[in-house]
Amino acid sequence: MISIPESVEDAIVNLLRLANTKLPEDVGWALEAAASWETNEIAYSQLGGIMDNVKKAEFMGRPMCQDTGVPVFYVSGKFDASIEKSIRNGVRRATSEIPLRPNTVHPLTRENPGDNLGDGMPVIHYTPTDDDHTEITVLPKGAGAENMTKLVMLNPADGTAGVKKFIISTVLEAGGRPCPPTVVGVGIGGTSDMCVKMAKEALLRPTDHVNTNDDERKLEEELFTILNASGLGPMGLGGDSTVLRVHIKTAYCHTASLPVAVNLNCWAARRATVRIMKDGTSRYGQW
Ligand code: SF4
After folding, report:
1. Cα(252)–Cα(250) distance, rounded to whole angstroms?
2. Which domains does the chain have, with CATH numbers?
3. Residue whose CA is at the smallest distance from ligand 1 atom 4
4. Which of 34, 71, 206, 248 suits a disulfide with 186, CB 3.0-4.6 Å?
5. Separation of 135 CA from ligand 1 center, angstroms?
6. Which residue ranges have their beta carbon within 6 Å of ligand 1?
7. Mutate-to-test residue for ligand 1 from 67, 138, 203, 270, highest number of ligand atoms within 8 A of CB
């Protein structure tokens, strides 16, 4: 999309603008698919309102939701320690230039620095690789969906039935608060911290990418069917479209453990990626 040299700081501003103003195409298709099978009149009109809002946001270059979330970054490829400062500067500038809602506060005093920064913010995950470019993906997480996150350390004897029960109850108990239809990110296995991390990473997979693991794909499809038959519907007002997709990510775990985590993305399932080449040129996308 853009092929002129620019700083990482500029790239972060452009990345946050793209993520907040343009819904990834695959999420738009998933919303259209949901509208095509929706039989509830109110739910159908809710989906229509959401899609209308998405089109207007893109056309006007304005955020698609008033809650622009907290940005979670995934940095991979080649980079050095200076990248953190560039990302932080980019977030500060994006907050005033786009603008983004200043969402970060101290957890106890609730003091708001006004720039979406603060100790530990923004969240940045690093994965160095042998590539000669740097790839940065952002996942803006709104509080409505993020607040519904749950982790459980099941007994291994609970098995797949216990895993399903936990995922279903988590989505249904969340009700309309995460602004359904949601994308359900699920982590299964690992350690407790890794499991929660995987649940969020599962949201990075485009909704039209099929899980290559047969067992996980079958479980995703089964949960998708059960959750959409629940009747919760868009915004929790009833209907056939409660979830757009269920995405599962797994890792091996201790033989005495069975961690399961759920992290939801609302209908505004925002994400964007920039690849910065070694000559400083950048390519943006929502792949
Ligand atoms: S959950 Fe998503 S759609 Fe709902 S208010 Fe938050 S960011 Fe917006």
Report:
1. 7
2. 8-22+64-142+270-285 (3.30.1330), 144-265 (no CATH)
3. 179
4. 248
5. 26
6. 65, 67, 69, 142, 144-145, 178-179, 266-268
7. 67
Burial of 203 (0-12, 13-18, 19+ CB in 10 A): buried
Q: What is the pTM of this model?
A: 0.96
